Amino acid sequence: MQEIIVTAFMSLDGVMEAPGGEPGYRNSGWTFNGIDFDPAAYEIKGREQAEAGALLLGRKSYEAFAPVWPEMDEFAEYNAMPRYVVSRTLEHEDPRWPARILRSVDEVRALKEEGEGGPVIVHGSATLGAALADAGLVDHYHLLVFPVLLGAGKRLFSEEEKNATRLRVRESETYANGIQKLVYDVIGTE
After folding, report:
1. Distance between CA 164 and CA 181 in Å, rounded?
2. CA gap 145, 148 in Å, rounded
3. Distance of alpha carbon 148 from alpha carbon 169, whole angstroms
4. Rounded Cα–Cα distance for residues 126 and 1 (Å)
5. How far is it, in rounded angstroms, from Cα 109 to Cα 2?
6. Strands 4-11, 54-58: parallel, antiparallel or unpaired by DSSP?
7. Three-state SS annotation for the chain
8. Beta bridge partners of 85
């Protein structure tokens, strides 16, 4: 069985939309606008890539990453590993960055149960991350929480009414620029 790790850049109020400058969101680029760069805060990103066995994305993240990531040297490991995209509407994979299309959370559950090797990493993909959490499929969260309040925007966690999910802190660190690394293990629901 493969574990699933949801990893995200997140504002203190839970918004994860447009961290890198994507158009259409009023606070686009909030991870670098007004926040000093501290390479230590991003160490976890390199570790995730080195340890991952596969990459899992929602359709919107896949469509944003597929034209860009294959040409980026800093994503060499992700470019070489199996990729999956969860979508009910995507008709075919992008030939620049092929990925197997999964049509439902149930197919992700089967992938998780049948898979071997390093963890499946979920980058971005707010809708998918929430759906996986609601289905009880997330094993760990790797969060970089930025010292900013953004108000409206896509959030990592759903507003679905459900039983409490208990987490255990595995790692935490606060960096000089105010970013907090929070690594949680999901230990169960009540």
Report:
1. 22
2. 9
3. 22
4. 23
5. 10
6. unpaired
7. CCCEEEEEEEECCCECCCCCCCCCCCCCCCCCCCCCCCHHHHHHHHHHHHHCCEEEEEHHHHHHHCCCHHHCHHHHHHHHCCEEEECCCCCCCCCCCCCEEECCHHHHHHHHHHCCCCCEEEECCHHHHHHHHHCCCCCEEEEEEECCCCCCCCECCCCCCCCCEEEEEEEEEECCCCCEEEEEEEEEEC
8. 57, 101
CA distance 122 to 86: 11
For residue 156, report the phi and psi dihedrals to the nearest 5 degrees: -70, -40
Copy the structure tokens of residue 59: 């359709």
Whole-prediction pTM: 0.94
Say which residue the tokens 């009023």 belong to: 26
C-beta of residue 58 within 8 angstroms of C-beta of residue 87: yes
The answer to whether 112 and 2 are in contact (CB under 8 A) is: yes
What are the pLDDT tens digits along the chain (190 aa)? 899 999 999 999 999 988 887 888 889 999 999 899 999 999 999 999 999 999 999 999 999 999 999 999 988 999 999 999 999 999 999 999 999 999 999 999 999 999 889 999 999 899 999 999 999 999 999 999 999 999 999 999 988 888 899 999 999 999 999 999 999 999 988 7
